[in-house]
Design goal:
The protein contains four helices and eight strands; from the N terminus they run βαααβββββββα. The chain is α+β, with helices and mostly antiparallel strands and 175 residues long. The protein has one domain: Jelly Rolls (Sandwich), CATH 2.60.120.620. The strands form two sheets. It has a five-stranded antiparallel β-sheet with strand order 1-2-8-3-6. The longest helix has 11 residues. The radius of gyration is 16 Å and the shape is globular. The two termini are 19 Å apart.
Length: 175
């Protein structure tokens, strides 16, 4: 989605982040999707039922990204409020693999903005490593810069197999 197509070796133990090219680095999707504890979690019948009940149709995971976000001064576009328009209805799952707070990349959402044009205050979705948030990405949302510690997160998108995002990201091969 945001890749230049090159492979990089990233050392998060280095104290100097100002030499990094980007604020976003992404693992191959198969790494997280084939991680057995994660695979068991996303195939849990209660999670599947919850997602199907929200979407009101049989869904597929049409996007899977695990991001590493080092400390960066980059002014990335995801820090601005936006909505994702992959399809008419999508649900995202955000897994925090590191502790996440307002200073290291918490996702913020404008509550109830997926059902109303009245936009209230943004709420930071923080959490300790292992925290999972389910978010309708039709909601007005934004990321926050990484200031204190690197962040590692997985983002999965549940929805129709064939949608705008799958065409743009070339996920439109036979499942």
């Amino acid at each position: 989605m945001q890749s230049d197509g090159n492979n990089y070796t990233l050392n998060l133990d280095v104290n100097r982040y100002d030499t990094l090219i980007s604020a976003y680095y992404c693992y191959d999707p198969n790494i997280s999707l084939n991680f057995n504890p994660f695979k068991r979690f996303i195939n849990n019948k209660d999670l599947i039922s919850l997602v199907e009940n929200y979407l009101n149709f049989q869904f597929t995971i049409y996007s899977s990204q695990t991001w590493v976000n080092p400390i960066s001064k980059e002014k990335h576009y995801v820090y601005r409020p936006h909505r994702d328009h992959d399809d008419y209805k999508i649900l995202g799952m955000v897994v925090y693999w590191t502790d996440v707070d307002e200073n290291n990349g918490s996702l913020s959402v404008a509550e109830r903005s997926h059902i109303s044009n009245n936009i209230g205050e943004f709420r930071n979705l923080t959490g300790k490593k292992g925290t999972v948030h389910l978010v309708d990405f039709g909601t007005l949302h934004k990321g926050s810069p990484i200031k204190d510690n690197p962040r590692i997160t997985s983002f999965l998108r549940f929805g129709n197999y064939f949608n705008h995002s799958t065409v743009m990201d070339c996920w439109c091969t036979t499942p």
